[in-house]
Design brief:
231 residues, alpha/beta, Rossmann fold, 2 domains, 9 helices, 6 strands, 46% helix, 12% strand, globular
Length: 231
């Protein structure tokens, strides 16, 4: 069932760009070779959601690092990630067209990410896509990270649109849970996780491999009909 969207809210990493394997490799290196853990990639992946400081606190426990240490480790990790990923930086297939068509239709668009501004700027400015988004909510803009709904509710509030008119694009089960907690429907993109990993969530409109999926045209058509009906 297609609802009539008034806004699209995008997670960033793994959703707009297919980079989560680079984050995983960087986190695994930092945790094991720089911070002395002995975690498998699967163990690291299971902890890799929310803010960087939350990842570190889940692995080492609260209070293990000072705030200054958390900030330093976070920035150094992101510098390593950016150096590794930059030669491969591109939008997920079909997304440029989807952004262009959404903007042409006047659909409001936002980014709601657990990334720090340092990483969000890296993507938006290198790909020259900042102007598509009237609202950007980063890790620094919320007190409670995903799966708490604050990120997406704040984005909806800044867009001046009701949560139930927003559709979220996410690559991770915790992100889909965030959308559900915010009262929003979601589209799951399978860049990072298998379809079976999302079985607990009832707010998913569909699964896509990339933005060339026919579901994207359905969403745009529904949004166009809604706007025509409001005139």
């Amino acid at each position: 069932m297609i609802i009539f969207p008034g806004a699209f809210i995008f997670d960033l990493n793994g959703t707009m760009i297919d980079d989560m394997n680079y984050h995983l490799r960087t986190w695994t290196y930092v945790l094991n070779h720089e911070l002395g853990t002995n975690l498998t990639e699967e163990e690291v992946k299971s902890q890799m959601y929310g803010k960087n400081e939350e990842v570190l606190e889940r692995v080492f426990g609260k209070g293990h690092f000072t705030k200054a240490e958390l900030d330093r480790i976070s920035i150094e990790k992101e510098k390593q990630y950016q150096e590794m990923y930059k030669p491969h930086l591109k939008l997920v297939d079909g997304l440029q067209r989807f952004l262009d068509r959404s903007r042409d239709l006047g659909v409001k668009m936002a980014i709601g990410s657990a990334a720090i501004p340092f990483n969000i700027d890296f993507v938006l400015d290198n790909l020259n896509i900042r102007d598509y988004f009237s609202v950007i909510v980063s890790a620094n803009d919320v007190e409670h990270s995903k799966p708490n709904p604050e990120t997406y509710l704040k984005a909806a509030s800044l867009l001046q649109i009701s949560p139930d008119e927003c559709i979220v694009f996410e690559d991770a089960p915790k992100g889909i849970e965030t959308a559900a907690n915010a009262g929003m429907k979601a589209v799951a993109i399978t860049t990072t996780h298998e379809v079976s990993e999302f079985s607990a969530y009832k707010n998913i409109l569909g699964f896509i491999k990339d933005y060339n999926d026919p579901l994207m045209d359905q969403l745009l058509h529904a949004s166009e009909k809604m706007q025509q009906g409001s005139k």
